[in-house]
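Progress report, Aim 2. The chain analyzed during this reporting quarter is listed below.
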Amino acid sequence: MGKLSGITVVDLTQFLPGPMMTVMMADQGARVIKVEPQAGDPARMMEPKEAGHSVWFANLNRAKESVVLDLKSEEGKAALVELCKGADVFVEGFRPGVMKRLGFDYDAVKQVKPDIIYCSISAFGQEGPLAHHPAHDMAVQALTGFLAVNDGPDGMPVVPGAPSADMAAGLTALSAVLMAVVGRDRTGEGAYIDCAMFDSILPWCAHTAGSAIAGGESPVSASQRSLGGAGFYQVYQTADGKHVALGGREIKFARNLLAALKREDLIPHAEREAGEQGELIQFLRDTFVTRTRDEWVEWFTDKDVAFAPVLNFRDALDEPHIAERRILVEGSDGAHHIAPPIRFVGEEWIPGATPELGR
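Predicted structure tokens for the chain:
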């Protein structure tokens, strides 16, 4: 039995934030009833596929049940009312106002289930000037300031490698729902959660945007220690056209590496402010390009330095660390799943089946 066995979730979400949140509940034993339109969650159709299912869909919707309802029909609405009567949690990811028009906003569902925990996940929240603005992850990152510092040496912002706003919202919604479950156990009262992707990702900038948070200028990547302005938090090209990363800003790592390279004279440069380490960065660029990535991996084996090769996903998923920690797991149907990051020591996790549409 999982930690959430006995909890029933009615899930009206699609794509990323909501399904990511509810799959973590399903992984821990919650009964998650995924309500889909006739065509299904669009993620079902996303390539690539394995064992008859989209890898994306399977990894975010395993262990759920699928129910197809037309929420514009009386029959569909009646069926959803019945699901709500037995639910602990109700999650929706439509634009603000849609659920009210359908007759299933918080007030309406509360009439059916007074202690319901109702969670709305949207880009910008249910109220405010941006509430009805259409957006997926990158637009939210653009409007929070994150995209501006996801730039290259030329200052041009690039498409982010991770949908951080989507995933931040999923994690925030999960935390809020679990807090509400604990609160309901104590008071008997449900809750309404207005979870915005915008609100969820913004706190992630506390360590980089301090000057702007305090009312000053926005940080610039080239002069920010965590965004490319420091020699020991930087990416370097190797002789074979691949890359390595230094990912530890503590001065002890600089001392260890520069001593090994017989350039102790550059240690004071590592102590300078970000944006003032040009000579150090250039030395490291010139140094790393003299060997291949794998040669550097071997060279660093006995060095206490926060160093890592830059791997692609195939390389990363083939690493022994993945196998040792059982992070990539094969289901009973042969499909592969990324194991949930929330696992409990001594408890084995097995991926649940991917639901067929309507089953």
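The radius of gyration is 24 Å. Residues 141 and 189 are 34 Å apart (CA to CA). These observations will guide the mutagenesis work planned for the next reporting period.
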